[in-house]
Fold each of these.
Amino acid sequence: MTVADVGRVVEGTEDEPPRRPRRRSGWATGYLLLLPGLLWLVLFFAVPTIQLVATSLYDQAGSLDTGYAMTWSFGNYLDALSTYRQPFLRSLMYATVATVAALLLAYPLAYAIAFKAGRFKNLMLVLVIAPFFTSFLVRTLAWKSILSDNGFIVQTLQTIGILGPDGRLLATSVAVVTGLTYNFLPFMVLPLYASLEKIDPRLMEAGKDLYANGFTSFRKITLPLSMPGVVAGTLLTFIPSAGDYINSELLGTPQQYMIGNVIDNTFLVQLNYPIAAACSVILMIVIVIMVLVYVRRAGTEELV
Amino acid sequence: MTASHAASDASGADLALSSVTKRFGSFTAVDDLDLLVGRGQFFALLGPSGCGKTTTLRMVAGLEEPTAGRIDLAGKDITRLKPYKRPVNTVFQNYALFPHLNIFENVAFGLRRRGVKDVKGQVQDMLDLVELSSYGGRRPGQLSGGQQQRVALARALINRPQVLLLDEPLGALDLKLRRQMQIELKRIQTEVGITFIHVTHDQEEAMTMADTIAVMNEGVIEQMGGPTELYDNPATTFVSNFLGQSNLVAGEVLGQSGHELVVAVEGSKLGVPMDRARSTSGAVWVGVRPEKVFLAASGTETEDNDNVLRGAVVTDVSFIGVSTQYLVRMPWSQELTVFEQNTGARESFRPGDAVDLHWMAAHTFVLDAAQDAHAGDETYDADLAPAGAGT
């Protein structure tokens, strides 16, 4: 029996106020609520994506002034890959290192907030989110002065001999990866915290009761149960990191440029729209494939 | 099956707690507790919530460390031993099954940690014992409460601990399943012969299953003994009210006559065997269980060794099938409870009937009047009770 049938039956009984209109409005409410978001997505995601894919297949001979001809130039992709192979690989490598670093930093932090913070739990969560109160750009610029040649970090590292007398941090890969790690750390901490916080501490007690010491309990119980958080956190860190261009722009040099910088430059300086679009599409496809493989291997669907 | 080979080398061992105290800040959860649990016993720690029974259990498991005192298992001091090094396993209150592992791996967890060989065979035997042989591949979330309970039991038992701790293991089950699991648990305990320590707030559960019960209240053991002994001869008002129901009336000791203590209660003289008197002078509580009392029409003659309280009026009658519960108001306006078996051989009464209460002197007990007559009575609300009522 469908919803409409139920409505008709109810309506058919006497001295019962007709209920069909109310049911119908209830049925429509869901769609009405979906509508603004759906429109937004179509307008600002679906249409631009289609446009971007189309642009990537335009004839490179065209220009903004003369217009582009749609020639289904799949060759654009080969050009993009051969020209910008370095920045592509660098992006994936930087993003991977930053994601691993963020995971290593965030896991103990999220664990401490979830299980050890007691009444400071909420305060610590606010502190994790606090950086968002200032702009991404301002915070990255702050790192520029923190890592600068005359900054105390470089001076200290030079004094204890980890950096040579001419060694520097700014304008190196280290600076870019540090910036990426810092900027996306909260996106790692929050999902990790959410999944750790849900774990019943009695499960760890049960582990200890069943002959697992602290480390084994963690490995066999806590870690597997926090996998949804690990997967969500690494995705939320890796995906924006791979496409980022602010950190490499502000903390690096052209030697550290990532694919984001290339896309930025190709679109806005070289005005080579087809190649820029091809780079964007390649980045999107690579990320989607990597994410699919990763999610499948992490096996999160098996987790309750 | 498993049970036989589990029993052969699972040697239940003596567990001894000596002057064990546990404080959380200024709150004393367990206060200078001494306890000896014999090998192979089914031992119940019974008490209301917050009485310290779970804390005691957790100290034996190693999940809490005593503030003072010492715990010995089979003659070895285990007070500060890590939980994963103790030959003790626990069935947790809400089972605490690992949701990411299937039933087989849950049960195998302890064996794998200890690097035991033949995990497969042992787990299968254990699943047979708890009648879940075909459920090995499922996740805990796909099982009913009763099944999860049995998995929790199997997961602990498979390690053949010297002591098995059960923390309110049946608390989450409905009444019918609980009764069934009580019988099941008792069967398994008899089969494997391991010492069971069972924490519960359900007096019926404790009495059904345990060989020995320790009744705990506010961090101390009020009384310890077999179910019959605790029920028939309670040592404190708390035990008399928490384990079943009791009628307690205020009395004054007059003296001794032969093997009996003579107590004056509102103008009547009652006899109590000396070995059932916890206090032998001054003000006392005289107690009798509701089902030990017989009602008779006012003025009926009594046998020589019966205790009698006269001049009561029936105020309420509830028929509950096997028995009828009467509330009677005494001349001093206290209400007492009487349970009469519906054998058909005895007269029944209606509200307003004048009756006398008779019972055998041997069923009477005497407690020190310094205690609160309502201690342990979970149905009593001091604000609602009429002044001077003492049941």
Amino acid sequence: MGGVRVILISGRTLEQGTNLENKLSDEYMNATAVCELSERELEKLGLKGDGTERVRVRTSAGEIVVAAKKGEGYPEGVAFIPMGPWANAVVNGNTKGSGMPFFKGIEAEIEPTDDEIPSIYDLMRRYKE
Amino acid sequence: MAVYTDVLCPFCGCICDDIVVEVGEDGKITKVKGACAIGRSKIMGHDRMESPAIREDGELRDCSYDEAIKRAAEILADARRPLLYGWSSTVCETDRAGVELAVEIGAIIDNTASVCHGPSILAIQDVGLPSCTLGQIRNRADIVIYWGSNPVFAHPNHMKRYSYLSKGRFTPGGKKDRKMVVVDVRETKSAKLADLFVKVRPGGDFLVFSALRAILRGHEDVVPDEVAGVEKKDLLSLAEMIKNANFIITFFGMGVTHSGARHNNIANAIEFTRAAHLHTKATIMPMRGHYNVNGFNQVCTWLLGYPFSIDLSQGYPWYNPGETGAVDVLVHGECDAALIISSDPASHFPADAVRHLARIPVIQIDPYPNPTTEFADVVIPSAICGVEAEGSVYRMDSVPLRVRKIVDSKFMADEEIIRRILEEVRAIKEKEGE
């Protein structure tokens, strides 16, 4: 199964916000280690988007495995990951002299995968290596 | 049981001040009424960091406040280019102490604005900000525009308390007397509630602001049939709505600060507001995130002349976001120690910045453990401002308010922690000078 190319944005969701000071919990991981995709993208990827399948998201900054979920209101070619450590694993640190990283409008490639979603501890361990 | 009314919520820049908190006999909060889901979760509290701790052989070992504060001071006094970051979910009194600490050790001091509304501040410095208070919006605004902002998720009570759904003096009918417009790249929950939803292509906001400016200034002939995915006829009808309104507010969020042209987006949004002044009263306001992100910018501006991303290593304030921003100094591998207060860069900074943070000594001051704790070398738990400690804060419209202490806590307040670190640093320096 091939991948799709999308413009990736990250941002706040209610579930992400309510678990903001509870980030080591499963609730936070369930709320933020998720990629929301439009129906068209899910079709192309051959996924249901019920949250049980996983995708690999790849950008110039790196890659991350997250759950795939159907999102409402997305135009074709736009995907969303709630702000947080999973989204930021694929955000580029180059601020182009502005001080502000590009948290939105990121070119990304998404493909289905059977790999596991890294836990928050796995993610932080990667940074320590 | 004690009941506290008119409690201020220490979560987002709305700082709703109509919250009711019930406290049981044991001094624990039992109920929170009137707050949104996010605010209630913050005020109710949950798993805290129980003890100060120092990392030894890779593991955090519990210690006393004295020991943790002493170790933190040693790290900072030793550092050649320390970063002091966070400062938005604490009170202005803490921020003032933080500025003193930054001056003492020649640090870079920055707050979460640098990954949030930093570009808005740059634009405001360029072209000013025709703004107002949230009270004026509640009482007067008949057109409320949310541009690149999803208040249903990010500021859940904003519409009810201050804008579209609120009832004011000249808007007694609430939403019957107002129109809500949402401009976004996707149809968000907020967009579903709007009278008009304008869907823009990602990164296209600058062009749409420019087109609206042209139309409002009487130059609709230069606007093409379609602008960044928006049809000209829709822009014309939005401009018509604006021309016929009494009072317009544009609230803008991360959708414009995080994408495309950054501060240029915001400068153009402000110029669009100015163009509307040819026809009616129009105002614009950033949807500030953390409850006191604005307060840090205010405190720094009084004390250092600049609002954020300030480098004090040369003995005077140097301000150049893009060079002196927290993400930049981390990605460039410049800083050799960091103090993180009431913030979690391990979650909210790009991977490259987190990688450097994991390499250097990190001091964390926070009520809660979070991913930054995973590589913090000194952990200092603190009281929750607005629940367990009082202080001054600035709402998103720059109105200063005083958040209260509702319950007692065994944890030290942020200001005291910073002041004690500062004392220790001064003691170390004095000793070195002898």
